[in-house]
Amino acid sequence: MATTLSSIAEKLSISRGTVSRALRDDSQISISTRNRIKSLAKEMNYKPNLVARGLSLGKTQTIGFLAGSPSLEITSTMEAKLDELANNAGYEVYVAHTKGNLDITVKRAHKLIGRGVDGLIVKGAFPEATVKEIQTKLKFSVPTVLFSGTLFGKSAYSSHRLVCQDVSIGIRKAINHLYRLGHSQIYMFSMCWPGWEKDMRFIEFYKSIESHGFGKGQDRLYSTDESYANKGTRHIIDVDLAFLQTKKFLKSHPECTAIICIQSEFALFLTSALARMGIRVPQDISIVGFDDVSTMAYSQPPLSTIAQPVEEMVNSAFELLMEGIERDIDEPKQIAIPSKFIIRQSAGEVRSEKKISITEK
Predict the structure, then answer these.
(1) What is the pTM of this model?
(2) Which residues contact 213 (CB under 8 A, 6 or more apart)?
(3) d(CA 144, CA 210)
(4) Burial of 334 (0-12, 13-18, 19+ CB in 10 A)
(5) Which residues contact 119 (CB under 8 A, 6 or more apart)?
């Protein structure tokens, strides 16, 4: 039979309420009594009923984290950091994956709320959603913090508590670095997903290209077709089709000397695809990735990257959420944390030849 508060109270000939308060470290219970009760509870292998405790306190000491794709390393990094912060604060984390879809996110958020979570952290930018949908569908009955690696227009989030990445600094530093190495024919590779034309990564890329006098920024964006991504997910690369797309791009843009990839996984693929074509990185083409997954530092060559400040963002999101849960602060607030540019060996001096030559191996 499981040990209960009543069985502990009976053993010590005290009230059940005194046991409950002592286990919650109520300062009105003497330290000696608290220690005696805790010692017996441990001896009797007492396990608190968290549901019952939550009902009595009005809190369950749980939070929900709605993330995108579990296949991405950056998502698992966020989950691990959030679990560490929550555990240190006496909370548990329930995780639900949403594939970056707004309707799935809303549906699973309500399920978590139904289970009694005290608050939510919602990861996602939802580029296909309208401003009205974001402002209305992402409003919940518990404290909520939105968490986004990029923005699709600040007005959509004006009524929310939001933590996001300021991509402008990282992109400017990357292009400035390439410029100092002699590059002017710089392109950005992007996957063709609806709504992503509003992504601040693209907007800042355009601005930086134009500020250096390299021409119209939009002319330097290469949006691939959906062959880059498996139909069932936005994050799995169809290697053969992506190789053909890359080859097609280089044949039509032989002047290209540097490529910034919008996704880290694609930057890793691109280096191997270029090797198959007899193109060296960085001697022939320099590569810069986006998001600093662990494998980027160990690729050949190690990849320079615009890194998302994951730990800082998770820390800020958790602090905002705790303000809402424990201090009842819920006014709109936006925190933008600067991205970083990490220099490694994949970005080198511009090649002397004006045009690239392809020799598939």
Answers:
(1) 0.78
(2) none
(3) 38
(4) middle
(5) 63, 64, 142, 143, 144, 145, 321, 324, 325
- Taking each helix axis from N to C terminus, what angle separates 73-88 and 310-327, rounded to the nearest 10 degrees? 40
Which tokens sit at 26? 């109520």
CA pair distance 230, 233, nearest whole angstrom:
6
**Model pLDDT for residues 82-123, shown as the tens digit of each residue:** 999 998 888 999 999 988 788 999 999 999 998 889 999 999
pLDDT tens sequence across 218-263: 999 987 655 444 444 445 667 777 788 888 899 999 999 999 998 7
φ, ψ dihedrals at 117, nearest 5°: -60, 150
Give me the domains of the chain, ranges plus CATH numbers: 5-48 (1.10.260), 62-167+309-339 (3.40.50.2300), 168-307 (3.40.50.2300)
- Exposure string of 191-208, with b = 16+ CB inside 10 Å and e = fewer, is bebeebeebbbbbbbbeb
Report yes or no: 234 and 194 within 8 Å, Cβ to Cβ. no
